[in-house]
Amino acid sequence: MIISKKHQDNVQGGFTLIELIIAITITSLILGAAATGVYQLIAGNAANSNYMTAVRQVQQVGHWVSRDMIMANVIDTSNSDDPDLVEPGDSMNVLRVYWFDIQGWDPTLERTYFKHKIVYNLTSEGLLYRHHFETGEIVEPIAEAGNLEIDGTETWTLVDTMLVAVYIEQDAFAIYSSGSGQYEMDVTAHVTGFQPALETRTYDIKRRPE
Description:
By secondary structure, the chain is α+β, with helices and mostly antiparallel strands. It has one domain (48-206). It is 32% helix and 37% strand. The chain has helices at residues 5-12, 17-71, 142-145; strands at 74-76, 92-106, 110-122, 128-134, 138-141, 157-165, 174-179, 182-191, 197-206. Strands 1, 2, 3, 4, 5 and 6 form a 6-stranded antiparallel β-sheet that branches. It starts with a helix and ends with a strand.
């Protein structure tokens, strides 16, 4: 059988240049759309995760600080240094509270109690620490003890340190009195990196009656 040259050329021919260009263009568009979709999915997950992290941090601060301030006998928001705490560089004490833990009474009309001090220290890296100090056991006759108070003669021992929260903005943290035993606390958590997130809360805190 004799096959014509024209028919041979049609059988053996490949893609033309235009067909290749069209195929490459379509493939590029598909890959670009897929890459965009994957990026948006990753970015969305990261943004949601970072936001939830920021929310959890301000909630942690609200829980622990409110808990300590509500039960405190004495509240100090002066941000002053504490002689019993070795503070990291560029950090500040944002709160100091005291309370008295009465252990019991006895027939001789004496009371046994501990004094507690909590110091909250916030570093420039956004780490908020809670330092718990206490005095040793104190026994005083009720008639002579009067009202329990912090007189500056206490010997404080550090019994516990915990990391309360991270990503806390040092410049945006504030606790201030709004009068009549009422306090307000502003706290902001800023999660940095890919898809950063920011969350700010204001807490109203009422200390316990004297």
